[in-house]
Prior knowledge:
Oligomer: single chain
Number of helices: 5
Number of domains: 1
Helix content: over 70%
Largest sheet: none
Distance between the termini: 53 Å
Number of strands: 0
Strand content: under 5%
Amino acid sequence: MFRQAVTDDFAQFLHHAIGVQGHPLPPPDHAAEKLRELGLRCLRAWSTQFGVAYPQLAVAYEYVKSDTQLLASIASVQRREQEEARLKVRARVNIFYQYNNLQKKK
């Protein structure tokens, strides 16, 4: 139901959450950038997960990726997602080593 409501007027989401076509996001600037990054992450995840059922998501994501004004934000989101994935792997490796050390002490 939520996805349907968002996709019914998807241009509004793109304007108010990402700031496409030069649409300004509300101040302050650091909050606007966080909003943009979260909007891009959501759009990317929605497009990947639900793009088949809602083709406008995939089209919108491709459009946003081609918007030169958003390239820095997209790159920032991608870097952050890669860093989060790297940290998750590192945490799992640390847990594995801690578990092995506990087993050796027994």
